[in-house]
Amino acid sequence: MAMSLPTVRIDEDRLWQSLMTMAEIGATPGGGVCRIALTDVDREARDLFSTWCRDAGLDLRIDRMGNIIGRRTGGDPDAPAVVTGSHLDTQPLGGRFDGVYGVLAGLEVMRALNDAGIETQAPLEVIDWTDEEGVRFAAGVVASGVYAGRFDLEYGLNLPDRAGETTFARELARIGYDGEAPCGGYPVDAFFEAHIEQGPILEQEGVPIGAVMGAQGQRCYAVTVTGEEGHAGTLPMALRRDAMVGASRMIDGLYRLAFDVTPPPVITTGYVSVRPNSRNTVPGQVVFSIDIRHPDNAVLADVCARAEALCRAAAAELGVDVAIEESSRRDSIAFDADCVDVVRTAADGLGLACRDIYSGAGHDACNLARTVPTGMIFVPCKGGISHNEREDALPADLAAGCQVLLEAMVARAGLA
Ligand code: HGY
Ligand code: MN
Ligand code: MN
What we know:
By secondary structure, the chain is α+β, with helices and mostly antiparallel strands.
């Protein structure tokens, strides 16, 4: 397919400026962003995105999981839409591009088509998916999961936050994004997500576009280690049931396990909470997270079984109790061959080098791919750094990915 729209160019400066303006919301002293889902800062970002969508003439709706959907009608307004989007929420010490690039690149596609006076045959939509990162509620991508039919609505709305103080539904209502539109359950023609690679390959190879083939599988756990509180000065070591020592032994074992499998999984303990968390009390309870990922589902299952076994063995050795709760799981997923090809062809038509690539990170696209033809477009980020305040990307790379997104969406939607 030749380039379908030689005259329609996205505006690199407008895209960059939108990203920098959005990055001011939740800006951290280290140059990153903290916009945790369903906080007041998230609401501020949502409000700004909603205003920009309206300014671009999009019809705006909020669905039951708070997903914000900007719709640009087409020649056939009843045709299933070609959809794009990503997430505005971030990690606590997140970057200025993870997620937000995909949302604002989608908006820039709409703006560029407006400027050129082009109408597509199928409608286009751009979505901000609620709580992709899962920092406060469960293990992430829950709103796109409900939309794609992976989770039921009640499960999503009733999710407790990690502190056990509120629920997803209450926080949605508190920030005014408890929408009434149905969350999924209607036909969608295709979904494309533009995202920084969050890894080093594209930058190292000097390739501006990644045609994403799929994403690895993932399982997340919350592990509760229970011992007994005691006096740090009087309780003899031999009599202690120290939950911190138990958790430490398990976490170290999990780290070593990752180097004992080929090709290796990735295993991370990202949070630990200690009770009573006092210098001079032997910890009675420690709760920690486990995030295990691997491209091969069978290997992933085997690594998870070994991980659980080593936690139980450590507990038995130290005389503490252990409870292991799975908080989420997602099999590895392959994206739609036609959508992957549309991305490759769009890059080729623009004279942009493109290579097939596999995603180590999870994305909302992984949920959509279960029921909708889905593709992703990766662009380089500096040093492959992400989930880090130093996350960075070049305006030209972000613009190139956005131009490919425009071409891919129009190729799929057709011209009115
Ligand atoms: O965890 C992930 O892979 C995504 O960045 N939320
Ligand atoms: Mn992301
Ligand atoms: Mn992320």
